[in-house]
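Usage

Read records sequentially. Each one opens with the input sequence:
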Amino acid sequence: MPLTLSRFCCVVVLGGAGSLYAADKTKPAPPSAADPYAQVQPATECLDLNMYQRIRDEGLNRSHVMEFASALMDGIGPRLTGSPNAKKANEWTRDTLTRIGLENAHLEDWGEFGMGWQQVNTWARMVAPDTAVLIVQATPWSPATSGPVTADVVFVNIQSEKDMDQYKGKLSGKIVLFGAMRPVPPLEKALFTRSTDKDLEDVAEFPVNVNAGGIPPEMIARMRERLERQKLVEKIAEFFAEEKVAGVIEPSRDGGNGGGSGGTLFDDNGATLGRTPYVADKRVKIPVVVAAIESYGRIYRLVQAHVPVSVEMDVETKVTGEHEHGFDTVAEITGTDPLLKEQVVMVGGHLDSWIAGTGATDNGAGTIVAMEAVRILKALDIKPRRTIRIALWTGEEQGLLGSKGYVTQHLGSTKTSTAPDQMQLPEFMRRPAGPLEVKAEHKFVSAYFNVDNGSGKIRGIYTQGNSAAAPIFAQWITPLKDLGVTTITMRNTGGTDHLSFDAVGVPGFQFIQDDLDYDTRTHHSNADVYERLQAADLKQIATVEAIFVFNAAQRDQMMPRKPLPDPDRVEKLRAPLEGIFPGATPEQKKP
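and closes with the structure output:
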């Protein structure tokens, strides 16, 4: 007889090679209004397979994701936080979400960011000993030149403050090459790849290691080395300003597999002469451009060979405000179950980008698939039990500022350590300290789902160490294996907005995606444009995301949570055990 699914029927998944759908006669306990997380999570999930089919049909056969893509990437362009384009993007997403039927679409102010900035036009060319067009862009928050400037080029090599002495009085009016010429290896590996079965097996395997729960010492050492270099770079920027250099040209960093060549350049944090150049009192005072490595290389080699080189450079940028605020776009599909409608399932991605391209894969892709996921649910006239909320963040590229601001305002926060070693780190990297302070909304957010790894299709999901979520997701993806969704991993993944939720104990999840050419070519580069988006993959992402959000909104229980963060208790538990060595004398307490 045909299988009838209701809200109290469940799916049983058996083994890794096959699956069986059957009714579970055990009726789950009703939700607890007092404590939604006190319930026992059932071993089997109730899945509406008819809804799977409807969502797949709408998402794969009537997608509008590429319309969203062109409107955002082509129509608005790069969206640096605090810029006029970021404002346009906030307003466009708010109005578009309203247009497709969502409710309460609005912008939320997460606080002061810093300088609004816009690149109008940047170009450079070598004028001696030959003429050559150079591939360059202004680094974000660079000041403008006073029209086109022609100057002799010098190379500086500063590895310590003492190295500045040799250049004093010699740089006025010069264009400075700042940065060593890096190797440009041949492209021996593909820049565009998809995950193999072996790749996914490796991701699914959870590594147990001695540094579990902490940051490995070698990573701490690298972070400190990077921060020390950044401090030196800020002093170098001040030195260049004092010396009145005409401008600075930096070489672009490389991408994975040698992808940072062929005219590709990256304009992210590594190219800016300062850790927070968007803060008015820490602004960079001299024009700075980043050059494709081939453009940089020719000038560098000529200068190293003592051939006089002159470059003409025009950097046209403008500051649109010194104390701009950042905003998130938020909208909802209101829940309908009287017992559950106050509870929320969230989906989103970050709306801001860098400026060399149009922010297509980072993270226009995450924005438009979240919009398409909620469009699918509205097109099907879904009446979710819980409220479904989409949130599109800004300030992600400067340290998860938008999502962290939202979480702090709505859910809770933990103070960060004020230890001397921690105060040397950016705030978002400092160790939590003190108790978690939660707000009333904290207990009502079931989960947050995020996409921010480019345009590649979803292959699975990171549970972020949430072991209770793993068997739930394993059942959700069984009907999606033909779409390539096969992998559940207990591993954590970092670098994006789900971390803001995870940090306060709210389940935050990032999907596993095919790499494509994200890390090799498009991430923060001038190749991060509409043409690098893969339409079929984006349809798949939006469809899968819509199904995950729908399932979370419909289940009787909220998604299971890990224990609430308690930094002070964790530090005590990690401390060496006392009195376990036979014959050891007690340590004398210092007066």
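Summary fields computed downstream for this record:
- Residues 181 and 261 are 13 Å apart (CA to CA).
- The longest strand covers residues 103-128.
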